Amino acid sequence: MKLDILVLAAHPDDAELGCGGTIAKQVALGHKVGVVDLTRGELGTRGTIETRAKEAKDSASILGLSVRANLGFKDGFFVNDEAHQLAVIRLIRKFQPDIVLANAIYDRHPDHGKGSELAFSACFYSGLTKIETKDEGKVQAAWRPKHLYHFIQSQMIKPDFVVDVSDFWETKMNAVRAFKTQFYDPTSDEPETFISNPGFMKLLESRGQEFGYSIGAKYGEGFTVRKVIGVDDIFSLR
Which whole number is the average pLDDT over 123-129? Predict the structure, then answer.
């Protein structure tokens, strides 16, 4: 299956937190969007591999994803090396996305920055014909996505552009809340974490409003790029 957009996220729930509104909006516009989580999030203080897999499946249904997969890299200890790059390259060549969305270039969680660099390397190397990969025994054709954008997570990073997700904010939040073990639950007896604190949801809301306000919208999601952005029509800019 060819995807229009492939989201590469270090952990289950990264995609929802960083670009859930953008995903929902693009799905509503008729685009095929898939999310591939690099790890199972097994080092997370709350929940288990099994509960997070179930939550990721529930979230995928809410967002209307065409694909949700997990590469099973070692949480906290995956690296940007040949073996990990080849695994991601196989997926890029399999799904042939025009756009890849990936983790923030740096963040409070080291895996986010590592995931960002791994996505960048794999997107480039995926276009090199002399790197051979196979899918189900068949040699894959080289494929390089047209664009790589990095969604912003907990760290305050100035966006290069902001997507208006006002009409899809509630869908985003429902997808986030699907990860019940990870976020605030007054009935849970698990230890409190940075994201399970009730203040985190308020932070997420205010961040969305801040990005939205910057472009004259109610809610927005910010992204950064590694190259200059080009436009065809300056009247399309806000």
Answer: 98
DSSP code at position 163: E
Mean pLDDT across the stretch 221-227? 96
pLDDT for the residue numbered 72: 98
Positive or negative, the Cα torsion across 14, 112, 120, 95? negative
pLDDT digits (tens, 9 = 90+) for 45-73: 999 999 999 999 999 999 999 999 999 99
Q: What is the CATH number of the domain that holds 12?
A: 3.40.50.10320
Split into its structural domains, the chain has a count of 1
Cα distances from 18 to residues 49, 66, 134, in angstroms, run: 21, 19, 31
Mean pLDDT of the chain: 96
| Residues in CB range of 11: below 8 A, 6 or more apart | 37, 38, 39, 41, 44, 75, 109, 111
- For tokens 């890849």, what's the residue? 100
Tell me the C-alpha distance between 12 and 10, whole Å: 7
* Region 90-101 average pLDDT: 98
Those residues with Cβ within 8 angstroms of residue 183's Cβ, 6 or more apart along the chain or in another chain: 176, 177, 195, 196, 200, 201
User: 162 in helix, strand or coil?
Assistant: strand
Compare 236 and 79 and report the one with higher pLDDT.
79
Residues sharing a CB contact under 8 Å with residue 110, sequence separation 6 or more, in sequence order: 76
Cβ-based neighbour number of residue 146 at 10 Å: 9
Instruction: Domain of residue 40: give its range.
Output: 5-236
